[in-house]
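Predict structure. Chain length: 362.
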Amino acid sequence: MNKYMKKFKTRNHRLALSLIFTLVVGVYLFFSALLTYLGVYLIIQLKYITKGTTEPPSQVMILLIITIANFFVGILMTFIFSKIPLKPVNNLINKMNMLASGDFKTRIKFTGLFSKTPIASELSDSFNKMAEELDNTEVLRRDFINNFSHEFKTPISSISGFARLLKKDNLTLQQKKEYIDIIEEESMRLSYMAENILNLTKIENQTILSDVSEYNLSEQIRNCILILENKWSAKNLEFSVDFGEHTISANEELLKQVWINLIDNAIKFSFENSTIEISIKHTAENIIVMVINSGNGISDYDLNYIFNRFYQADKSRATDGNGIGLTIVKKITELHNGTVSVASEGDTTMFSVELPIRHRGR
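Prediction complete.
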């Protein structure tokens, strides 16, 4: 019922717009004709007055009839031709209603003379780009819900299953320890996923950087590597971290999330027995941190979306993450008035984060 009411209201709005346009132009034509009539009337009257007669000329009545006829003809022609300029507007309204109702596949294409104008091209390009971005976001959101539901379900099932096994009385100490380790590992996995979601929500709502302090950036990055030791040790990876001591003025806790997410991402997609390189460059005003790993490269298509929330370039390894780590990296970097970029060629992928040494606020 609401759907039909909306369509009825939309048609009424368009009819009202058409009538207003018609009325405005009609009134303009009426007064234009009226002024013409008055001008001609005064000229004729002046002519007869100078001849010494005050008899109303028949030409005046003719002009009056022409004026009235002109008014109604103007109204009719305006109503007919008003449909032409309003057609693109109606088309745009229809497409916007379709987009608002969730049809993100809709696209707009103008026809006729209006399509040849620059504004038509700009309007259609902007609308279609917006619809495409909404469509991509919807696909990512849907994939994220599916993947995230699966990620949550798997560790919860493991925790529940091994907790039931622990109730048995015939288990050895070794078995109990093994089951407890699995429960602990799956619990940490759940905690990590929940923490990432909460962090993203918190960071996206933050517009002003607070708790800025000066600290040793090099030491922070080395600590982040140690935090992830279990992950890179399991793949027998090595780190090349040949850099000096660098200090930076920033939010220490937020930047810690940047390095953990970048290093964790490098570990996840590195070949076994390979090396991850981390370097720090220092310029007059900025610090540049680069994280380089050897693994399956990132396609040109994926490079365009790699920092989008929920996006995962390697769909076969979707369960290794939830697609928001790099989104967090980008948002935190922007909060620090910095930039993050990625380049991939062959088996080598490099993430580069450039930050001001002294945070000056926005």
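Summary: Residues 1-8, 315-319 have pLDDT under 50 and may be disordered.
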